Amino acid sequence: MISTTKGKQLLCALPKFHARQSHTKPALHPVQARRFTKTCSFAYPATHSTTAPTTSDTEFDALVVGAGAGGVTAASLLANKGYRTLLVEAKDCIGGRASTRLVDGFLVNTGALVIELDGAVAKTYKDVGLSLRLYEPSRASTVLRFGGRDINITDSLVGAIRNITPTVFASISRVLPWLRPKKGESTRSWLNNFTRSQTIHGVVNNILGAMFAVRADHMPSEVFLHYFLKDTSFKKIGMPPGGTIEVWKPLADYVNKTGGQVWLNSTVSKLIFGSDGLVAGALVQRADGSEIQISSKVTVSNVGPLETVRLASPTNFPAGYAEMIERWADPAAIITVHFASQTPLAMFPCLAIFGKSRRMVYAGNFSAPELQRAPEGWHLYCGASVPIPSQGDFDVEKEKALLLEDLHDHFPGFDKAKIVAIDVTANSWPAQRAVSGFDQPQTTPVANLFNVGDGVKPWASGGTAACSQSARIVVEKIVEIFPLSRE
């Protein structure tokens, strides 16, 4: 990720917004409390142990590699099911590309901006007995910026048109079979059957870019139709006070309080296999430079299918599997400019999708005092673009310049704004590890090794909710296939 600022700081300095607990939790044992202090710098100042690890530090029922949305969701649900869980994260904070960092006094997101009020994250909170705290704008949460106007697409007549248009397209396709999407046909190609209007194609491009970080020429048309027809799009959303990282803190805290552990600044360097061909544990490099071997009955990877293969070693999979994953890996990219002003630059309260632009697909407004994202007297925004091509190599400087031009056009006064950071989210740290419709299964050829996250999303889904939903699916499988035995 590329940043124009020098002010990246540890998130242990951030304000904390823990969700209220809806039930009484187990008391935290003093040893666990000390261990939590050592391993979770997002909650307390971190210290490092100088003593050898005990058995309780190395034996776990479940290992979760990576504390992104999928990893934290999986770890909290496994903990709720009674699995003593170790969550290992290489960075100094949780959340991955759905987190927050402090830059020059501003709390800027690393990726995901909003959370669905009734999606997989909210369901996970309910499952573990926590209350999800989100800020809901009083006005339309999502608008379409078109011709200099912000059009409410959350409800009203425009919202109704938005909801029925895909249905009309689908109905026409059923009546006229030759208009049905062909297997693998791109959304652009299919849409050309109805219109060649550059305006309509531009709107569709930007909607897909905002939701999937991809353009219409790379999005399968059957995925596009399914996503909009099955009521999975434009759900009610909220914004976490203090940034998206605040969504994951209570869930990680829950892992610790139920007997598990969260290790930050720690890297899984290798998965260890037993003679039965199953994953038996892992080697973990700790922040203090020590290497610890841990054991686990099941392992969940949130680092993507490609990195999972590398951690496990291709020799532990059937012939050809590793090569197939190598060929499959084709992540999508997004570029984000975070900017701030001491005067308001926009009126929309949450998200804006752009009908016409060079590259910009959406913008976010984090200026509401309730969000506590900016110093007093400042207004915080971001604008994001999908480069061309959205997958593979692209001219970074050219694409950044085009996004900045769009921001100048759509935000009067932008020329006097403070550029807080510019992030290029691509390659090994991408916007999406897989374009929706091209995801790998959550299972692997190794029975007790699973993938979660944005490379294994449920079909025709996207965003943070899809990452969390992949984890919910995996935990259900684990409970069924590898039930706990406490003999």
From TrEMBL:
* Stretches of the chain forming a coiled coil according to its record: none
Short name of one Pfam family: Amino_oxidase
What GO molecular-function term can you cite, just one?
Answer: oxidoreductase activity
Which parts of the sequence belong to the Amine oxidase domain? 70-478
Top-rank taxon, per record: Eukaryota
UniProt xrefs under InterPro entries: Amino_oxidase (IPR002937), FAD/NAD-bd_sf (IPR036188)
Q: What is this protein called?
A: Amine oxidase domain-containing protein
